[in-house]
Amino acid sequence: MKRGSEEAFAAADDALTRGAYLEAFEIAKPWVDEGHDWAESCIGSLYQCGLGVKQDLEEAVRLFRRAADHGSAGAWYSLGVIYDVGGVNMPPNPELAGAFYQKARELGYFPGQPYIRPLR
Length: 120
Known about the structure:
The protein contains six helices and no strands. By secondary structure, it is an all-alpha fold. It has a single domain (5-112), classed as Serine Threonine Protein Phosphatase 5, Tetratricopeptide repeat, CATH 1.25.40. Helix 1 runs antiparallel to helix 2 (21-33) and helix 5 packs antiparallel against helix 6. The longest helix has 14 residues, at 5-18. The protein is globular and about 35 Å long. The chain starts with a helix and ends in a 14-residue tail after the last helix. The mean pLDDT is 90.
């Protein structure tokens, strides 16, 4: 992590733990602009769940894709969850969800393991 990024990560994590979602957003936002996967995942989660911001699955997917491209196994898993469950204007896609869970597992993120589905 870039100098200062570790402190920002800890502060954003603390804000999330306290339920201070807008504070977490404000802490992470500058780091998203610099391409830090932890910040992209943090804000992606806020958009996914509508915490401190209006729920926006398309924005969540965009941010999780960026984080995944930066090597975040957790982002691959989060993409799997979105496509597994679906939502407004985003129908479930079990095949895509399974592929994302598999990628998370390949990168060592095992919470995705129970959800891996055989591809048809």
